[in-house]
C-alpha cells in the first residue's frame, strides 16, 4: 500500500540514464522508508504540533561523503555571471584563488517543484556542493547560524574561512593561490594547489613579488603526485608544517619567489633526504635554481 503513495513525478523528470533499475529500485525503497517514518511520527488527531523542522534541517546539513553525492540530480550554478556583491560572486572570488572558474563546479540540488527556466529559480541558498575536479577536491555547503560554510568532504572538520589577522596575513604572504581552512577547534591549515608559480620581470617594479600560475604546464602536471599541498599551521600562527619533502620544497620555492630569504634559509635547514628525488621534487628544484640572480639574494 505504501508503494502506491510514492510521488513518482521527481523520478519522471530525471534523465534516462538515472532511471535504470539499479537507480530506480533503491530510490523507491528510500521513498517508501521516508513515508513509513513520516507516518510513524505523525501526531495523533487533535494533538499539538511539534516543531519537526529543526531535526529535518540538522539531517539536511549532516556531513556527506563523496558516494552520497553520486547519483543525485543537481543543477550547475553560473559563477561567471554572478551579480557583484552576491554570495555566488564572493564564492567565485574565493575559488578563483586556487582554480580557473572554468574548472569550478558549483552545484545545487534539483527541485522539481521549481521552474528552472526562471533566472531566479536557484539562489545561493540552494548551494550544495562545490567541486574542483582537477584538484580532486569537493566542498559541501552547510549553514552554520547566519553563515554558509564550505566544509571539505576530503578532509573532515575543515572548512574554508576568510578570517584574517596580522599573523595569518603575514603567514600567507607570497601564497596568493591558497585557501585558509579552519577546524571546529580553531586549528588552521593552508591548502595550496601544486601548480608551477612564475615571477615575471616587471621593469617598473624591479623587486616585484607578483606571481603568475602556469596551470597549463603538462610536464609539471604529469610529475606531481598530488594536485595540492596541505600545510598545517603551528598553534602559534608563526609557521607552516611540511608533511612531505615535495611540499617542503614547494614552500621553499614560494618563500624564495616572495623574496623572504631569511625564511628560505630557515626552511632549507629543516629539509633532508637520503633517497633519490622524485620527478615532482626535481621539477620544484629546477624552478628554484632557474631564477636570475637578484641584487638582494645571497
TrEMBL record:
<protein>
    <submittedName>
        <fullName>Uncharacterized protein</fullName>
    </submittedName>
</protein>
<keyword id="KW-1133">Transmembrane helix</keyword>
<keyword id="KW-0812">Transmembrane</keyword>
<feature type="transmembrane region" description="Helical">
    <location>
        <begin position="228"/>
        <end position="253"/>
    </location>
</feature>
<keyword id="KW-0472">Membrane</keyword>
Amino acid at each position: 500500500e505504501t508503494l502506491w503513495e510514492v510521488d513518482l513525478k521527481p523520478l519522471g523528470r530525471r534523465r534516462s540514464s538515472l532511471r535504470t533499475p539499479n537507480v530506480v529500485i533503491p530510490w523507491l525503497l528510500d521513498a517508501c522508508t521516508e513515508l513509513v517514518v513520516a507516518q510513524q511520527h505523525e501526531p495523533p488527531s487533535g494533538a499539538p504540533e511539534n516543531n519537526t523542522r529543526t531535526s529535518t534541517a540538522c539531517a539536511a546539513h549532516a556531513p556527506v561523503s563523496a558516494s552520497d553525492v553520486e547519483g543525485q540530480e543537481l543543477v550547475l550554478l553560473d559563477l561567471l555571471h554572478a551579480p557583484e556583491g552576491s554570495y555566488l560572486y564572493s564564492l567565485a572570488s574565493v575559488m578563483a584563488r586556487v582554480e580557473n572558474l572554468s574548472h569550478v563546479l558549483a552545484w545545487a540540488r534539483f527541485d522539481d517543484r521549481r521552474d528552472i527556466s526562471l533566472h531566479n529559480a536557484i539562489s545561493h541558498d540552494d548551494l550544495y556542493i562545490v567541486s574542483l575536479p582537477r584538484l580532486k577536491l569537493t566542498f559541501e555547503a552547510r549553514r552554520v547560524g547566519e553563515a554558509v560554510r564550505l566544509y571539505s568532504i576530503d578532509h573532515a572538520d575543515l572548512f574554508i574561512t576568510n578570517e584574517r589577522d596580522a599573523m595569518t596575513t603575514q603567514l600567507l604572504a607570497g601564497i596568493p593561490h591558497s585557501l585558509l581552512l579552519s577546524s571546529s577547534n580553531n586549528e588552521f591549515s593552508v591548502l595550496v594547489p601544486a601548480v608551477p608559480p612564475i615571477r615575471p620581470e616587471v621593469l617598473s617594479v624591479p623587486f616585484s613579488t607578483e606571481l603568475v600560475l602556469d596551470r597549463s604546464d603538462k610536464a609539471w602536471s604529469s610529475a606531481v603526485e598530488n594536485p595540492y599541498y596541505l600545510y598545517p599551521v603551528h598553534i602559534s600562527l608563526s609557521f607552516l608544517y611540511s608533511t612531505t619533502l615535495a611540499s617542503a620544497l614547494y614552500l621553499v620555492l614560494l618563500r624564495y619567489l616572495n623574496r623572504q630569504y631569511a625564511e628560505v634559509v630557515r626552511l632549507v635547514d629543516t629539509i633532508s633526504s637520503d633517497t633519490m628525488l622524485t620527478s615532482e621534487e626535481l621539477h620544484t628544484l629546477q624552478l628554484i635554481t632557474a631564477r636570475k640572480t637578484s641584487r638582494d639574494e645571497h
